[in-house]
């Protein structure tokens, strides 16, 4: 699972563990990964935290290889990495140039990362004629409201899901996209904030997130 260190990714990882799965989680932040791995082990299941950058083909291929060696074949992939990208080395950039760079980076994280991770595991799934890929989209995949890059990426994720699913439909692999709405995570803490749905929508749009 990409983006498995917190929020929706953490919850899905724990749910899979409760159903009896051995779970590998990847993200860039090791302390968060280790914390989730400890929770999974506390449920009596195997956990494998792997630090990997979802923006890197090499990282995700290496991650998939590590999982195969340590836990066995990847039977279920959850593409959960997403959000907004902080642009490094932005000193001297105009506001327009910074927006351009951020747009491309956000597309990479929210759309291209799902293709990268899928490509790292799809061929072995097809060879075994068994596999499940679940892409985590957003309510903004069906309507406007998020930032331009985020909304475009999540709309694109539905198209990617449909296209890949059609290519492997007769090869034992299914690919689906879930589009959650507002979810109680650190990003939007419903209990602590106490905001109504309109307020949550305004803050979500400012944060350039859709979940």
Give an account of the 3D structure.
The protein has 211 residues and is an alpha/beta fold. The chain has one domain: Rossmann fold (3-Layer(aba) Sandwich). Helices cover 52% and strands 12% of the residues. It has helices spanning 7-18, 30-42, 57-70, 95-128, 148-168, 190-193, 197-207, and strands at residues 23-27, 47-51, 76-79, 131-136, 173-178. The strands form two sheets. Strands 3-4-5 form a three-stranded parallel β-sheet, with helices on one face. The radius of gyration is 17 Å and the shape is globular.
What keywords describe this structure?
7 helices; Rossmann fold; 211 residues; globular; alpha/beta
Brief write-up:
This protein is an alpha/beta fold and 211 residues long.
How would you name the CATH homologous superfamily? NAD(P)-binding Rossmann-like Domain
- CATH secondary-structure class: Alpha Beta
What is the CATH topology classification name? Rossmann fold
Distance separating the two termini: 17 Å
Strand content: 5-15%
Sheet with the most strands? 3 strands, parallel
Q: What is the ordering of alpha helices and beta strands?
A: HEHEHEHEHEHH
- How many runs of DSSP E, i.e. beta strands? 5
Backbone structural class = alpha/beta
């Amino acid at each position: 699972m990409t983006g498995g260190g917190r929020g929706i990714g953490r919850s899905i990882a724990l749910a899979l563990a409760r159903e009896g799965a051995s779970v590998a989680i990847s993200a860039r932040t090791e302390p968060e990964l280790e914390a989730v791995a400890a929770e999974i082990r506390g449920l009596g299941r195997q956990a494998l935290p792997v630090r990997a950058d979802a923006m890197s083909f090499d990282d995700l291929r290496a991650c998939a290889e590590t999982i195969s060696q340590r836990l066995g074949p990847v039977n279920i992939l959850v593409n959960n990495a997403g959000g907004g990208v902080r642009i490094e080395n932005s000193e001297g950039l105009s506001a327009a140039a910074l927006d351009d760079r951020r747009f491309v980076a956000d597309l990479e994280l929210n759309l291209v990362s799902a293709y990268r991770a899928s490509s790292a595991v799809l061929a072995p799934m097809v060879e075994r004629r068994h596999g499940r890929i679940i892409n985590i989209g957003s309510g903004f995949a069906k309507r406007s409201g998020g930032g331009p890059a985020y909304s475009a990426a999540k709309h694109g994720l539905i198209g990617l899901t449909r296209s890949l699913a059609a290519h492997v439909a007769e090869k034992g692999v299914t690919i689906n996209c879930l589009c959650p709405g507002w979810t109680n995570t650190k990003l939007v803490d419903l209990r602590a904030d106490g905001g109504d749905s309109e307020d949550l929508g305004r803050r979500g749009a400012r944060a350039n997130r859709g979940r």
